[in-house]
Amino acid sequence: TMTDTAPHTPRQEPASPTTLAGKDTGEAHRDPRARARAVPAMSPNRLALMLATVLVGLSAGFFFTYEASVTLGLADVSDVTYVETFQAINDTIRNPAFGIVFFGSVPAIGLALVANWRTAPAVARSLLVAALPLYLAGLMITGTGNVPLNNDLADVATITPETAAAARAVFEDDWNRLNLVRAIAVASSFVSLAAASIHVSARHHGAGETARQTGPS
Length: 217
Fold this sequence. Notes:
Oligomer: single chain
Number of strands: 0
Low-confidence stretches: 20-25, 34-39
Strand content: under 5%
């Protein structure tokens, strides 16, 4: 009898999902382009917009906190306590952390506007343009309204029930009204930046999807 000498071909087992995942991961590590597609980098224009949004958001939260809690709580205290507390707040608010957030927001918005001007969609550019004067309005209200009132209150050296009542009478209502207006202005600036961030991110995501679909397989 003749013996069958045909070579035996081993049966191929289908690759498991774990094996495929491991293979894909290895290829991503070996191929810089695959790694870039797997972990998209944050572009400088989006980083600039994120920085501006965070800083302005912190400023908006600061003024909102005054509006929602500080002024409401101080409304219920005595005149002497009111003047002493506000003087203490005004003495301690001039610190590096507040300065970076409050004054640094202006150049941050300007940087975000310049960095995104050529690449952002039209609606995002309009929102960025609106954010700057809105924030500047809050800055101007603070400098020309709230700060002079703070300085006048700081001049009350001898605090008695009578002097405290007189100082509070010319301070509280005007200061609260100015704070409300600047809180609205800065909050509107923050909303504009947040909305611009959404539009910029959507365009970036859409461009990334298009590149993946049209790129080499």
